Amino acid sequence: xxxxxxxxxxxxxxxxxxxxxxxxxxxxxxxxxxxxxxxxxxxxxxxxxxxxxxxxxxxxxxxxxxxxxxxxxxxxxxxxxxxxxxxxxxxxxxxxxxxxxxxxxxxxxxxxxxxxxxxxxxxxxxxxxxxxxxxxxxxxxxxxxxxxxxxxxxxxxxxxxxxxxxxxxxxxxxxxxxxxxxxxxxxxxxxxxxxxxxxxxxxxxxxxxxxxxxxxxxxxxxxxxxxxxxxxxxxxxxxxxxxxxxxxxxxxxxxxxxxxxxxxxxxxxxxxx
Length: 273
Fold this sequence. Notes:
This protein is α+β, with helices and mostly antiparallel strands. The protein has helices spanning 25-33, 98-113, 156-159, 255-269; strands spanning 36-41, 47-51, 53-69, 76-94, 133-136, 161-172, 178-179, 189-190, 192-201, 209-215, 221-227.
């Protein structure tokens, strides 16, 4: 079975076997525009998807630094040790009918199970690293090593942002209440669930500026710098030249080329060109 992009449909059979007469326009929006969080567990191969009723999206870049003070000097040197990226994600999972409520409960159960280790050959929890994931959310969470031809939507397995989940929490909204199935005594399903977690992205390629050479407009070879990840931290198409803005995006471009594009756009905006 091949993995495909998520597809949302609230049309299903009720417990009594009759077709549910229910239409949710958010299904159409999610399918057409890719408005969903698609989550794929690399080790357990669990995959779940939720429509993107986004509550929180905070991207943190914490610089790890080391301070050093020399003898007989008041000056303190700061040495950079790296950059730790952490995404704080929060979204709501509302249910419009009992069918949706059951689907959401099943997906949330699977997401929790995916946090646990995969067994090794001795049927013991594997101790080789924490479970890794790929998550796809439009162009804001996508593979940083994928070219910017990346589609605005897609599957987590093929084009998701790889990383680790930490601090997964669910909150059942008590004001919204619960749904019940008349054929299932003693079972309740939340109408609204708040999901929150932190995500630590990782890449195979080191994010950094590499020195390179290029030719200027006169054919002279000059030094420049190019970032190793073109679609970082978010995939984007840049500025299309067909709309009066010269240049494309900063993906794969050197700092000199990026600066030239920015200056050209600024001159055009100021009417100097």
